[in-house]
Amino acid sequence: MIEVTRDVFRLAQVFTISRGSRTEAKVLTVRVTRGGVTGWGECVPYARYDETLESVEAQIRSLPEGIDRAALQEALPAGAARNAVDCALWDLEAKQAGCRVWELAGLSAPKPEVTAYTLSLDAPEAMQAQAAKHAHRPLLKIKLGTPDDMPRLEAVRAGAPDARIIVDANEGWSAEVYADLAPHLLRLGVALVEQPLPAGEDEALLGVDRPVPLCADESCHDRESLSQLKGKYDMVNIKLDKTGGLTEALALRDAARAEGYEVMVGCMVGSSLAMAPAVLVAQGAAITDLDGPLLLAEDRDAPLVFDAAGVHPSEAALWG
């Protein structure tokens, strides 16, 4: 039996990016029960990819009972619906086999990974205060992509002078804006810029000097995306809601590395259940950005542990 429910998690504070603000995370939870054993997974439908709670739920409900992971890859496209079901099937298989998912997948035992912490888009003085509050964290991520980005970036650096900083432009810049900002990004010690241009316009990055490495986010969904990234990006951001689950995420990670890309593992704003499979993908990643649960005011039972060592792998009581 495949069951899908809607869950809402309150955010610890209003979270803003260039596309808008939110106060809660709305997710779909999938449970697959067979032989008295239940595996579960979570996805976050994303409007940027024309997904809604209703459309993704309909995709999940269209699946036949008894579908396995191999058939699932053909039955649904890469996206949130396939992600939740794929992760639920991995969890189910592990419980049926009496082992952990990483063992089923032939992976080494996972370890904690240092994760970025995302600062919400706000006025420069507010972002400086946010940065100062979180200056103890080794890696901060800033949501930019507006005409007023430099004051915000300067403010964050002033608030957290020792933190490593990465920037997510959320498709909000042009090639000319990136070229103008690049020297300042270098000066302020920015280690990485995610998706500076809209995915459909990133041909403009061909031949552009990249003194600060660029990471493909909206331009990279699964292995089929890799052929379109050459000469534009240095890194790919793997998110399970884009790849359509752990199965494709692991395959994309290996294929991207084989083609010379660094790997970042990111997330939508979801609960620990959504992050747990991604922690396996993040092992050895250049950048891990799995801070979703840190942005929530409430979480699943047996949530992931976050401490100075980073985000820890899940306990079996949560997933996998």
Description:
- The chain is an alpha/beta fold and 320 residues long.
- 31% of the residues lie in helices and 23% in strands.
- The chain is built from ten helices and 13 strands.
- The chain has helices at residues 53-61, 69-75, 80-97, 101-104, 124-133, 149-159, 175-187, 240-243, 246-258, 272-281, and strands at residues 2-17, 20-34, 37-43, 117-119, 139-143, 164-168, 190-194, 214-216, 235-238, 262-265, 287-288, 306-307, 310-311.
- Helix 1 (53-61) packs across helix 3 (80-97) and helix 5 runs parallel beside helix 6.
- It is globular.
- The model has no long low-confidence stretch (mean pLDDT 94).
What is the distance, rounded to the nearest whole angstrom, between the alpha carbons of the first and last residues?
19 Å
**Spatial ordering of strands, largest sheet:** 4-5-6-7-8-9-10-11
* Category by helix and strand content: alpha/beta
Largest sheet: 8 strands, parallel
Give the count of helical stretches. 10
Helix content: 25-40%
Compact summary:
The chain has 320 residues and is of the alpha/beta class. It has helices at 53-61, 69-75, 80-97, 101-104, 124-133, 149-159, 175-187, 240-243, 246-258, 272-281; strands spanning 2-17, 20-34, 37-43, 117-119, 139-143, 164-168, 190-194, 214-216, 235-238, 262-265, 287-288, 306-307, 310-311.
